Fold this protein.
Amino acid sequence: MKEDKIIFGLDIGTTKIVCLAGRLNEHGKLEIMGLGKSKSLGVKRGIVNNIMQTVESINHAVQILKQKTNLDIKEVCTGIAGQHIRSLQHQDYITRENPEKFIDSHDVELLHKNVKKLILLPGEEIIHVLAQEYKIDGETEIKQPEGMYGSRLEASFHIVAGQTAAIRNITRCVITSGLKINALNLEPLASSDAVLSDDEKEAGVVLVDIGGGTTDVAIFKGGIIRHTAVIPFGGNVITDDIKEGCSIMERDAELLKTRFGSALPSENKESEIVSIPGLRGGEPKEISLKNLSKIIKARVEEIIDQVYRQVTSYGYQEGKNKLIAGVVLTGGGAKLKHIKQLTEYITGMSTRIGFANEHLAKDTPDEISHPSYATSVGLILRGLKSNNFEDIKDDEASSTRTKKITFFENWSKKFLNYLLNE
């Protein structure tokens, strides 16, 4: 991989918009070259509801990064999430004309084209087609069918779909900001690249990315994505509950949550009080930290309950589906005090907080390794993976891999062109 190849990740979130620049150093670690961040305006629960405000926020984040690094930002790897996202399982097959010839990338491409013909709900489009495993003439659990012989090639797919209008609004905002979309990625997949190890994906793990507007769930087993879901609320609803429950301003509610908040009221004493300054010189308001924790716990329990429903629907208690690596929490909401313990209590599964440290160079600022930047780091990692295929020049094996990437890149470009020209 070219060490000087710089990738830009653009995370358009409900709370903030982040533009991150990174490249691989000589040790294969991600060197962060700069960060641009702005308050997200015009996005609610992962969905753009005001084009101009979102464009303004994107421009602000990009300009900050440009000023810090003096880099020319033209293309970005962008994430997509939101309550419009849904996933489904699908099986498809092709019958090969010449079973005497070994299976090549053309056969795999034909199979994937079949999947693209799948009829979805009105107004939906496919975002990702992720092959889980292949089957050749009834022989199961095949991960790489190329080079094998057979007449019937089958596969089970995990398909991620979203509303065309929501996807089009995201792409319109990015392009109106003067940027080109290099790749469009489902955000929990990007976050998983940043905080999960290959061993965890193999053993079985639940990634829970608690953002401002949504909570994204991704389940991996056997090194393969098995289930994805988007829960339509996140950290912002906790802030709203504090605001209403304590009768204070939103900015004070957010400050209380991040500085003094806890998901376990039992960890606070009745005597612990924090004072909030009054408006226009009015009397300060005293808030009990135990009551604050009770408000937070009620909403966090609701979020984790929804996550656990997704895990249960996957059937994690069955032998072959057992999720040995437990739960990994990431996103801004993952830093809420005692959320790890509450998650373990509700789910009965081991839980850890997901940081991107493993992939980052040693001199990376501590801020970047914060769980709230997992998606941004993951977008760069996915962009670097894509570019890695272009740099490989290794005989037959690389030829097959390059063809596969080219197929998906062509599909992605055609899809983006459709969105822009429709």
Remarks:
- The first strand starts at residue 7 and ends at 12.
- Residues 15 and 40 are 5 Å apart (CA to CA).
- The chain is about 40% helix and 30% strand.
- Confidence is low (pLDDT under 50) at residues 388-409.
